[in-house]
Amino acid sequence: MSVDTDRMHEACGVFGIYGPGEDVARLTFFGLYALQHRGQESAGIATADGSEIRLFAEMGLVSQVFSEADLANLTGHIAIGHTRYSTMGSSCVENAQPIVVESDLGPLAVAHNGNLVNAPYLAERVIERGAPLTSSTDSETIARLCATAPGRDWVERIRQTMPLVKGAFSLVMMTKRELIAVRDTYGIRPLCLGRLGSSWVIASESCALGPIGAELLREIQPGEIMIIDENGPRSVYMDTSAARNAMCSFEYIYFARPDSVINGTLVYLARERMGAALAEEHPVDADLVMPVPDSATAAAVGYARGSGLPYREGLIKNRYIGRTFIQPDQRLRESGVKLKFNPLPEVLEGKSVVVVDDSIVRGTTTPSTVALLRRAGAREVHMRVTSPPMVNSCYLGIDTARREELIAANMTVPEICKHIGADSLGYLSLDRMIEAIGLPGERLCHACFTGEYPMPVQLDFDKLVLEGARGRV
Ligand code: AMP
Q1: Average per-residue pLDDT in the chain?
Q2: What pLDDT shows up at residue 89?
Q3: In terms of C-beta density within 10 A (0-12 exposed, 13-18 middle, 19 or more buried), how is residue 235 classed?
Q4: Backbone angles phi, psi at 444, to 5 degrees
Q5: 430 C-alpha to center of ligand 1: Å?
Q6: Residue 358 pLDDT more than 70?
Q7: Taking residues 404-423, what's their average pLDDT?
Q8: What is the pLDDT of residue 469?
Q9: Is the CB of 365 under 6 A from ligand 1?
Q10: Of all protein residues, whose CA lies closest to atom 6 belonging to ligand 1?
């Protein structure tokens, strides 16, 4: 298998339920359905019934992966599930999650969202302990480390293991009898706890709770290890003294669903505030404000409110086409724009339009979007972006691109404006972005904009090289 250097990396969605008397596989299926935006490459569910663990994972969308029969075979009262786009590890079915490993304590299933920064070190520890590594995923490494750690029970083993693991990890794990949630000490990726009658639910985002009738109770705290069994949840905590809270700001900007509540903030409202702030920072005399659908819809509503300009839609998105950006191939990404958006010439004809988007990453899709609007009759196109120029790679789970591929790392704002073919371009400032999110800047990770990583990361380190170093690509 070769390394696909064009491959985009992406975060993942994780879900777990401890639900005696419930059809836990089906509830997990619906939970994953709501988390589909977090990863479209593979999906999997594992269930436990007190004596064994069953697993089904395949490449594809949640709706394609599971048949009625597959769900019916996934019996038990505990389940965990995963939707994946590869952050680390190649795109193949062996890397689909959850991963199940065997140990003297019985099987352990793990589903991971995030990205580790010391994966090769951890892989060496696993091999040193004489355990195999069959996939190239961080989650297998974590699972095998836990399985081979010293300790009489799983909680002890997990507590022993987590301090070794560096990077971003929001994990759901399952033993034959317990559901376990773990969040890294920085709290980089989201993870929340919900309640469904007498059942307990863990999910990457709260948007997975409503559809199954569960309610949001709280976030899993940075450094928290929550164990849920027949006695309900109990938590132990890792030492967080060396870590600062560093929730990913890009989750608020782009990645999370707008109907999720993260740290008490409805993502939709954070985006609206970003749009309103952008209208103050980069006003323009135009005829209308429109979003690049769907991710910037809330932000465009905010810009319209802030500017007093009318909100209209100038592009209609085909809802059945995946995110072009995360197709693992550049050619597909480029042709994807036309397949994805259809302009409304009657709305755009002769108009000066403000186009609001959440981010410009590589700058490959934005020029096509601007050109599409011009061909449809727009007189002026003023691009407004609800985040600062992205000048650094993410090493912590949202791998937008390598630094050399980030357009803002290579061009000034006027150069980018010219490159995308817009009449003007304005980015939201860091301060106003932080203010719109509503958390203090010290509690956010904004390394992709500022280079201030919350933990040491190897800046010149190429994740693809790393994969090669692990010998499984
Ligand atoms: P580009 O002009 O190629 O940088 O693409 C910008 C578009 O990609 C914007 O509309 C963003 O909403 C979208 N985008 C940003 N980050 C991601 C990501 N990680 N995955 C998919 N799409 C993204």
Answers
A1: 91
A2: 61
A3: middle
A4: -115, 155
A5: 18
A6: yes
A7: 98
A8: 38
A9: yes
A10: 360
pTM: 0.93
- Sign of CA pseudo-dihedral 312, 318, 319, 325: negative
Q: Give yes or no for residue 357 CB within 6 A of ligand 1.
A: yes
pLDDT band at 459 (very low <50, low <70, confident <90, very high): low
Ligand 1 centre to CA of 413 (Å) is: 17
Whether 12 is a known active-site residue: answer yes
pLDDT in tens, 339-357: 889 999 999 999 999 999 9
pLDDT digits (tens, 9 = 90+) for 91-102: 778 788 999 999
State if residue 358 touches ligand 1 by the CB under 6 angstroms criterion. Answer: yes
Q: Whose CA is nearest to atom 21 of ligand 1?
A: 325
Q: For each of the domains in the chain, give its residue range(s) and CATH number, in order of start.
A: 4-243+463-469 (3.60.20.10), 266-438 (3.40.50.2020)
How many angstroms separate the CA atoms of 2 and 407, rounded?
26
For tokens 């589909």, the residue is 36
With a 6 Å cutoff on the Cβ, whether 361 touches ligand 1 is: yes
Question: Rounded to the nearest whole angstrom, what is the distance from the C-alpha of residue 361 to the centroid of ligand 1?
Answer: 6
Q: Is 254 in the pocket of ligand 1 (CB under 6 A)?
A: yes
- 320 CB neighbour count, 10 Å cutoff: 6
